[in-house]
């Protein structure tokens, strides 16, 4: 398995020049930040050794002149340190924002390409946690964590190298704690990784709970379940708190332990360095530099826990985001184009067998032919497979056996966007987006004019109630259209399909939520709407489909009856039984199972 950091670097390969430039600026910033410590040692030697100092050997013999040179050099170094800090800070932050933006967009785009079964197996909160929390965690890491890591390693290498070069006899004392610190860091890192993975998982669960409850707030209120749901949120939040607590307990113990190891190195340097200075093995300036700089060598290890904390959180998030991007797309597009103006609308279900994952077969070797520009009705008991046919036609799911043809072409070979563009679908579960009435009607037909929107609304018998809304077509419908009634939402969905003007129209319980008067008005409009297009109407209200060219009755995944309304009544089977129940016919035969 590829390490998540490598995956992240591969993902950002287009920004490698920016990464390298930010890295160079970060390293130079730290080098210039460390340089004044060296100058302090040189300045001490100037005061103590005067004409024999390092600066004097470079050609400046006057003591005041030496101090002036060191002062100007210090001013230049501090200016460069500030300049490179500006550069690296801006580069890393811009890179973090860019990667965050593109990663979220790529993750969301990939998510849209996945089949419906993926969404059915996962909660909305879990997916939101990846798209928001995890990607934001990566942004925070790139924003500051990467620079902190580079600063740490630059400090260790530069200061450690200076110790070896200037005072090799004392260097081993200062560096003695480092192997123990690194060993402890690796041990804690291995133990922190699974704890932070658990934290991210718990974050997904609490997000899922909150998203689910906010979506179902009306149900919670109607069943007075506020306390119950609060307790469930409490349970999830407590689990998240405890998971974080386990990670914090380990990471918080790191600093005190490292502090004790660091003080050993500092005291040893103070003692052995002083002895070396007394024995004239090193200069007084060098001794002062060593005592001062040893803290800069060892104290960064104390912040290693915070760096490690940020890194592990980022890697846990990277695994989740990359896991989403690695999810294979089960339903791939074909390469056969299907121009909209060439579609006749001839639909053929040929020997179809289909089952949802881990469930019994919903459709069993079903065959059904829908001639071009005809209107057919499909009826049957709940669970008989009516809506599944529609979802298979739209390729929301992939069939296990058989073929579905449009104009004689297997839909699996068709360009997926072309396929869905030629089908207008009015679902029984109407979804409206938070926005205006006009925006919801024109959804998918974004370039249409206001006049065309109004015309579609009139055909769907929606114009009258829309004009009675506070802002008419500019009225905000609320999330999922919660400000509108079920019948109003359904009429907007019909208007949306009308505006799309597809050659194939699917009405899946399109009038189930409207009253009888509105249904009658919509029925009149449907006569005109369904002309010159293939129409598939799925209905529990048989009055909606009684005038269809052909009606198919389904039972347990198979077509068991077909014919016109009159022919099916005369047959006296499932359809006749359903009609008798809905029409209130006292002669209904109870032996017929609807």
TrEMBL record:
Transmembrane segments: 20-44, 64-88, 145-164, 170-188, 247-272, 284-304
Signal peptide per UniProt: none
Family annotation (SUPFAM superfamilies): ABC transporter transmembrane region (SSF90123), P-loop containing nucleoside triphosphate hydrolases (SSF52540)
Bilayer topology annotation: Multi-pass membrane protein
Pfam families, per the entry: ABC_membrane, ABC_tran
Any one GO MF annotation of this record: ATP binding
Predominant localisation class: membrane
Domain of life: Bacteria
Coiled coil location: none
Gene3D superfamilies according to UniProt: ABC transporter type 1, transmembrane domain (1.20.1560.10), P-loop containing nucleotide triphosphate hydrolases (3.40.50.300)
Residue ranges of domain ABC transporter in the record: 347-581
Residues covered by the ABC transmembrane type-1 domain: 20-313
Compartment(s) of residence: Cell membrane
Matches recorded under InterPro entries: AAA+_ATPase, ABC1_TM_dom, ABC1_TM_sf, ABC_transporter-like_ATP-bd, ABC_transporter-like_CS, P-loop_NTPase, Type_1_exporter
Assigned keywords, A-Z: ATP-binding, Membrane, Nucleotide-binding, Transmembrane, Transmembrane helix
Alphabetized PANTHER family for the sequence: ATP-BINDING CASSETTE SUB-FAMILY B MEMBER 10, MITOCHONDRIAL, ATP-DEPENDENT PERMEASE MDL1, MITOCHONDRIAL
UniProt protein name: ABC transporter ATP-binding protein/permease
Organism encoding this protein: Stenomitos frigidus AS-A4
């Amino acid at each position: 398995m590829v390490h998540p950091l490598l995956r992240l670097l591969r993902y950002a390969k287009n920004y490698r020049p920016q990464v390298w430039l930010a890295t160079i600026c970060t390293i130079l910033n730290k080098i210039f930040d460390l340089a004044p410590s060296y100058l302090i040692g040189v300045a001490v030697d100037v005061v103590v050794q005067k004409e024999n100092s390092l600066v004097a050997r470079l050609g400046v013999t006057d003591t005041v002149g030496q101090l002036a040179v060191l002062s100007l050099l210090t001013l230049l170094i501090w200016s460069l340190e500030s300049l490179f800090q500006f550069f690296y800070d801006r580069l890393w932050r811009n890179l973090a924002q860019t990667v965050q933006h593109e990663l979220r967009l790529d993750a969301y785009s990939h998510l849209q390409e996945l089949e419906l079964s993926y969404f059915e197996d996962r909660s909305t909160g879990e997916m939101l946690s990846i798209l928001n929390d995890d990607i934001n965690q990566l942004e925070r890491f790139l924003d500051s964590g990467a620079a902190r890591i580079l600063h740490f390693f630059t400090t260790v290498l530069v200061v450690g190298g200076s110790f070896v070069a200037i005072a090799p006899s004392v260097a081993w004392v200062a560096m003695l704690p480092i192997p123990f610190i690194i060993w402890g860091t690796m041990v804690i890192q291995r133990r922190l990784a699974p704890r932070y993975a658990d934290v991210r998982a718990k974050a997904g669960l609490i997000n899922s709970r909150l998203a689910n409850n906010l979506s179902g707030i009306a149900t919670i209120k109607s069943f007075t379940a506020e306390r119950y749901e609060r307790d469930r949120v409490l349970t999830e939040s407590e689990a998240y708190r405890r998971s974080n607590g386990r990670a914090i307990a380990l990471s918080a113990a790191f600093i005190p332990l490292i502090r004790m190891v660091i003080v050993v190195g500092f005291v040893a340097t103070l003692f052995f360095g002083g002895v070396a200075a007394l024995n004239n093995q090193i200069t007084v300036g060098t001794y002062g530099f060593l005592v001062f700089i040893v803290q800069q060598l060892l104290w960064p290890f104390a912040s290693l826990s915070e760096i490690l904390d940020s890194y592990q959180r980022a890697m846990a998030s990277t695994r989740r985001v990359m896991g989403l991007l690695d999810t294979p797309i089960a339903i791939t597009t074909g390469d056969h184009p299907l121009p909209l103006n060439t579609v006749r609308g001839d639909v053929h279900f040929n020997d179809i067998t289909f089952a949802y994952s881990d469930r019994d077969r919903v459709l069993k070797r079903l065959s059904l032919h829908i001639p071009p520009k005809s209107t057919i009705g499909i009826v049957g008991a709940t669970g008989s497979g009516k809506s599944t046919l529609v979802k298979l036609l739209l390729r929301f799911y992939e069939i296990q056996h058989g073929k579905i043809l449009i104009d004689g072409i297997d839909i699996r070979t068709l360009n997926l966007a072309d396929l869905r563009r030629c089908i207008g679908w009015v679902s029984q579960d109407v979804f409206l987006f938070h926005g205006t009435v006009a925006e919801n009607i024109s959804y998918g037909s974004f370039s249409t004019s206001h006049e065309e929107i109004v015309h579609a609304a009139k055909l769907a018998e929606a114009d009258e109630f829309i004009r009675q809304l506070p802002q008419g077509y500019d009225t905000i419908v609320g999330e999922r259209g919660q400000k509108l009634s079920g019948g109003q939402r359904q009429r907007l969905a019909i208007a949306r399909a009308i505006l799309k003007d597809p050659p194939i129209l699917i009405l899946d319980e399109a009038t189930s939520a409207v009253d009888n008067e509105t249904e009658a008005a919509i029925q009149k409009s449907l006569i005109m709407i369904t002309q010159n297009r293939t129409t598939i109407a799925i209905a529990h209200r048989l009055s909606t489909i009684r005038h269809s060219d052909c009606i198919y009755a389904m039972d347990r995944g198979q077509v068991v009856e077909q014919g016109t309304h009159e022919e099916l009544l005369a047959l006296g089977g499932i359809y006749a039984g359903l009609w008798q129940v809905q029409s209130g016919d006292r002669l209904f035969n109870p032996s017929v199972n609807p």
